[in-house]
Amino acid sequence: MNHDTQKPVSFQQDSFYDTQLLDLQRSKGTPEYEDIPLFGSLPELLSSLWQHLGLDVRFIRTGGTLPDRVEETFSIGISGGKSPGQLVLLPSRDIRKPKLVGQERHRFLTTLAQFLGDAYRWQQTLRQYEEMLAAPLDISSLRRHGESLFQLLKESAKLVNCCAASLYLLDSRQKMLKLRSCWGLPEERLLDPPKPLHGSLADIEAILGQAVIVNEDYLFEMWQVPEDFPMAVCLPVMSHQTVWGTLWLFSERRWDCTEHDLNLMEYITGRLTAELEKSALHRELAKIQKSVV
Asked: Residue 113: its pLDDT value, please?
């Protein structure tokens, strides 16, 4: 069954919270999180180090597998937090002599690792506040809520054989969509300005209750797909009372969407909706408690 957006799929709201879907499993593999660059421009930066300085430097996420031969490692340190990974210097791959050697090379790569750590810390702070705005919370709930949304996107993408996910939420006037959380994409995407709902055809279709599946190149511009992947799916994130926004899932390869896939997608959007509404409820309860005191 192939849905190339010519017939969007209608979601039935009552099936959003079907707990039997918890038992559904995927057999297809997905890229490991360790393969995702720390920043979107990092691969190009490391490539430039090789081209212009003769330094073969790789970024390995925490928990990732190190190459067999390593000359030196440089931890991307985070004050008071878990390091996202390290820069790994490999032996030169050709006869060219590196332009940086010894202490000069060590100082340069140490400084680069420190810079990436500072940028990562700002990146994480931005992500936390963007996710707080997804459903305003008291500051003590900020970290827990942000990590919950991020983890949900990660699990959701892997569940349906996708390598990236992004959650767009409507503003209070329901005229703009803002990226509030993402997984598998460079987190500087969170710096992008809101996009108008008007003209965002796939998002409008989803908000009206339809799932839009785009797996043909010539359809990407028409449906305003926000990322460059071979396949994209736009899903409604909504309950009976509230339209929250849209969830985009992206895949590195095209595949036919089956009934099983659609059931999984309904389950995914249901979990996201439940998390957003739970957070909003906590906010209202906090307001009531504050007014009583």
From this structure: 87
292 contact partners, CB below 8 Å, separation of at least 6: none
Helix (H) or strand (E) holding 285: helix 259-292
| Percent of residues in the chain assigned helix, strand, coil, to nearest 5 | 45, 20, 35
pTM: 0.60
Give residue-wise pLDDT tens across range 221-272. Answer: 999 999 999 999 999 999 888 899 999 999 999 988 888 888 898 899 998 8
Give domain limits for the chain: 9-25+139-292, 34-126
- 30-36-41 Cα angle (round to 5): 145
Q: Does the pLDDT value for residue 210 go beyond 50?
A: yes
For residue 80, the SS3 value is coil
- Tell me the CA distances in angstroms from 218 to 5, 203, 215, 221, 222, one per residue in order: 11, 18, 9, 7, 8
CB 231 within 8 A of CB 215: yes
Quick one: fold of 9-25+139-292? Beta-Lactamase (3.30.450)
pLDDT in tens, 29-45: 344 444 455 677 788 88
Contacts with 112 (C-beta within 8 Å, 6 or more apart), sequence order: 74, 87
Enumerate residues 6+ apart whose C-beta is below 8 A from 68.
none
